[in-house]
Design brief:
CATH topology: TIM Barrel
Helix content: 25-40%
Number of domains: 1
Largest sheet: 8 strands, mixed
Radius of gyration: 19 Å
CATH architecture: Alpha-Beta Barrel
Distance between the termini: 28 Å
CATH class: Alpha Beta
Structural class: alpha/beta
Shape: globular
Strand content: 5-15%
């Protein structure tokens, strides 16, 4: 893999954006492991029920130490796998909330229905956790095709449970007690997401009218052509066409706002990365291997160069794509 070069590097050069550099880090994104109750076709982490990688208590405690020592880190963004399956998740959430940090957990919804997770939604509500829930479509056929039979029905049931706790009515409110529930959409195949605002209206109408479900915002994410999704479209003979689409749809305005400019990613083993996609590809932070145990002052990362490669084209195509949805 060619770092800081290739097609993506050439696009940055053409628009005077090379090298891509970090701004002040405000979000610490922590991947607590690859264990998941699902094995989705689009999963860039290749998470699943047979994965065993998990963040241990020592590393989780170090995450909280770094948060405590760096007030600029206003958000802890927890992802996986299914974060709920890591036994240290609740200590992470409680610790970060005690420090006054905004806590987001990226949830696949169906995990909340497992027998051992029956109180998880209530725990999230009590801790005022911002739930970012993956729901790749508002139709049963598309969701079940991407995630497995029965997952759409399970997702709707989980959303109803969250709604019953007060989630999904935070939009437009500034108070810290609002329970925010955002959904994540990604295309079923090798295409770019449609306009985020229009899709949000469609989701709101279909989920509300058909299932009585409410939510706050919808994030649209482009699929990154790596791991399961990349292998799937390569088998279909569509990988080259998709990469070409991403390249020709490069948007310099999106490149200015990519999430890696404000985010630091931590893997389950404590290794540091520029984003979750670099994490799963084993590309270290700025191209140099180091761990969270070597990190004290996050401000030292300001203006550091970001390790990039051609998979980064997915984040800068069209309206752009990030963990917070469209960028432009």
């Amino acid at each position: 893999m060619l770092l800081n070069g290739g097609r993506f590097g050439a696009r940055l050069e053409r628009h005077g954006l090379s090298p891509l550099r970090r701004r002040r880090v405000t979000t610490l994104q922590v991947n607590v492991g690859k264990l998941c109750d699902l094995a989705c076709r689009h999963c860039h982490v290749e998470a699943g029920p047979k994965r065993s990688e998990a963040m241990d208590a020592r590393t989780a405690a170090r995450v909280l130490e770094v948060l405590a020592g760096n007030p600029a880190l206003g958000t802890l963004d927890v992802t996986g796998g299914a974060p709920e399956l890591n036994p240290n998740l609740r200590d992470l959430v409680r610790g970060a909330r005690a420090l006054g940090r905004h806590v987001m957990v990226r949830c696949n919804l169906t995990v909340l229905l497992l027998p051992e997770q029956q109180d998880t939604a209530a725990f999230y509500a009590a801790q005022r956790v911002h739930v970012v829930a993956s729901l790749p479509c508002y139709t049963q056929a598309n969701v079940d095709a991407q995630r497995g039979g029965g997952t759409f029905a399970g997702s709707i049931e989980a959303l109803r449970r969250l709604n019953a706790l007060g989630y999904g009515a935070a939009e437009g409110r500034d108070d810290e007690h609002a329970l925010r529930l955002d959904l994540v959409y990604n295309p079923l195949g090798p295409s770019l997401p449609g306009p985020q605002a229009a899709l949000e209206r469609d989701y709101r109408a279909r989920l509300g009218e058909d299932h009585g479900v409410v939510f706050d915002r919808l994030y649209t994410l482009a699929n990154v052509p790596i791991h399961r999704f990349g292998a799937d479209i390569e088998r279909q003979g569509r990988l080259d066409g998709y990469v070409e689409l991403l390249e020709t749809s490069f948007n310099p305005a999106a490149a200015h706002e990519v999430m890696c400019r404000d985010l630091l990613s931590v893997d389950h083993d404590g290794s540091l990365h520029d984003c979750d996609f670099n994490l799963v590809l084993d590309i270290p932070l700025g191209g140099r291997a180091r761990t969270i145990f070597e990190l004290d002052d996050v401000a030292s990362l300001t203006d550091a160069s970001i390790a990039t490669a051609d998979h980064c084209l997915a984040c800068t195509a069209g309206a752009g794509s990030s963990c917070g949805g469209a960028l432009t």
